[in-house]
Design a protein that fits this description.
With 513 residues, the chain is α+β, with helices and mostly antiparallel strands. It is built from 8 helices and 28 strands. The chain has 2 domains: 202 residues, no CATH class; 194 residues, no CATH class. The strands form 6 sheets. It has an 8-stranded antiparallel sheet. The chain has an 8-stranded mixed sheet with strand order 11-10-17-15-14-16-13-12.
């Protein structure tokens, strides 16, 4: 029996080692690496914790890398926010709990999550009227109150919630990029754009209008459009010319969508700002030339707003299929090559990307503590991410926002890293509120409600025996349950065979005595 137990332990160790080895992250030591531990959070999800010492060219660091296969049908990867509106700031943990409660019937059980996109902060980017805020040489007011909008192209479960940041809102030091995933688990990294057009369906004579952006700051010399995901209003200044479009159905903004509605109100300079409500769109124009483009639109006009995602530089076709997307900072690795940059900022960091075999890797690094982890210099990140095994990778966000959350095994969740913000007692680790989160979930089919039973046919109604007889190879096989049962059977068979091999020598020995 002792030999059997030892064998089973060895078998489990070998199975775990084989699973870890099947992942794409490099097992070569980083410069100055002093320790590396690996944990299987859930089958198919591996978390590696790496500590670098003071002698490392990357300096002292505490780094976590989570890897998984997005094409595995038992997993679901989504970008989402923590409230009804995309402008609400919520911690990663709160977002995960909300997401879990909202998706119980879909069987989605969050496994691990990280912080997502950067956003327009009120102290810098969203220049509030009367605040005197200046950023990038711009001090003109843009909004009447804070607007914490994602700064990249963001798509939540198939719905586009924001187009990429525009230069007219607030200048930005780096080009913004985005990471997207398709329903079949393919991933893409690039600089997608969102083309938006407003068309006349009433034949009243106004020309097609190009829209500057979706759910962006209502900057001067732009025409922005807002969906019912933005909040209660557009925060536009009094000089804005706003057009209210109401739809008689629950629209979803996605690639190829052509949303039809009717103009129900026009708010001119000095008028009370329109309020947002469900199934409403609001067009906001600022600047004489831009207001002129929409002045021929009248109350009662039937209009259509079309949306199209494209990436002129690369991978244009795949972007049209992306259903979850998060924006962020700088590309670090592209097609296996480190992308050099000269940014000397040192920050805690969150990055996301893929390996050569299509696996997704999350990276979170702590920082701003000399005695623990100093944070990564942005110019060092490409080399580090390349050494870890990334094929494509970009910096999502950093600073106090960097958060890695995982399930703790008892239905709860724990923050794995130590965020650099402090609690009131002065200790580190206080999670920061963020504009969205990236959540990897396990699909637990046992949580999905069973469909209502079909009524038994009456005596007068002939039955179809073929329809009532279950066939082999049903839904359970399609979802992977069949393969799990087969794998278990194989394992039990192998164990039984090894048990026989172990017991057999013992019998021979007893006979020889």
């Amino acid at each position: 029996m002792k030999k059997l137990i030892a064998f089973l332990i060895c078998l489990l160790v070998l199975m775990s080692a084989a699973e870890i080895c099947s992942f794409g992250m490099s097992d070569e030591k980083l410069d100055g690496e002093i320790s590396r531990t690996t944990e299987i959070i859930r089958k198919g999800v591996v978390c590696t914790h790496i500590s670098l010492g003071d002698s490392s060219k990357y300096k002292r660091q505490e780094i976590w890398v989570v890897e998984f296969d997005p094409q595995d049908p038992v997993f679901d990867l989504q970008v989402t926010c923590g409230g009804k509106y995309t402008t609400k700031l919520v911690t990663v943990e709160e977002t995960v709990k909300r997401f879990k409660d909202a998706n119980v019937d879909k069987g989605l059980v969050p496994v691990v999550a990280i912080n997502g996109d950067i956003w327009t902060t009120s102290y810098a980017h969203a220049r509030i009227l009367g605040s005197g805020t200046e950023y990038g040489g711009f001090s003109d007011p843009v909004v009447t109150h804070a607007m914490t909008l994602p700064r990249g192209l963001d798509i939540y479960d198939g719905e586009i919630v924001s187009s990429p940041h525009t230069a007219k809102e607030t200048p930005y030091e780096r080009q913004l990029h985005a990471f997207g995933i398709t329903p079949d688990g393919r991933t893409v990294l690039g600089t997608p754009s969102l083309k938006i057009r407003l068309n006349d369906l009433s034949l009243n004579g106004f020309e097609e209008v190009d829209i500057s952006g979706l759910n962006r700051l209502p900057a001067k010399n732009t025409i922005m459009i807002y969906s019912d995901k933005v909040g209660e209003d557009t925060a536009a200044l009094d000089d804005a010319y706003e057009i209210v479009i109401d739809c008689d159905y629950d629209y979803v903004i996605k690639h190829g969508a052509a949303i039809k509605g009717r103009v129900t109100a026009i708010c001119k300079e000095g008028d009370e700002d329109p309020k947002m409500q469900e199934n409403r769109l609001i067009v906001t124009a600022r600047g004489t030339r831009y207001v002129q483009k929409v002045k021929n639109i009248r109350v009662g006009d039937d209009v259509e707003v079309s949306f199209e995602i494209s990436d002129a530089k690369n991978d244009g076709d795949i972007w049209s299929q992306v259903t979850n997307c998060v924006g962020g900072h700088t590309i670090l690795v592209k097609k296996g090559k480190a992308v050099a940059n000269t940014d000397s900022d040192v920050i805690p960091a969150t990055a996301i990307g893929n390996t050569a075999d299509g696996h997704v890797m999350f990276l979170v690094c702590d920082g701003r503590r000399k005695d623990y982890s100093v944070g990564l210099k942005i110019s060092d990140m490409p080399g580090l991410c390349k050494a870890l095994g990334y094929e494509n990778c970009f910096l999502v966000d950093g600073g106090g926002s960097s958060t890695l959350l995982k399930e703790s095994g008892d239905g709860n969740y724990e923050v794995v890293n130590v965020p650099c913000d402090k609690y009131e007692d002065g200790t580190y680790g206080k999670p920061r509120t963020v504009v969205n989160s990236i959540i990897l979930s396990f699909i637990d089919e046992s949580l999905i409600p069973t469909p209502e039973p079909v009524q038994t046919p009456t005596a007068e109604e002939p039955t179809d025996p073929a329809a009532e007889t279950p066939t082999t190879g049903g839904d359970s096989e399609k979802t992977g349950c069949g393969s799990s049962v087969t794998a278990l059977a194989v394992l039990l068979t192998a164990t039984a065979a090894m048990f026989a091999l172990i017991k057999k020598p013992e019998v021979h020995k007893s006979k020889g005595r």
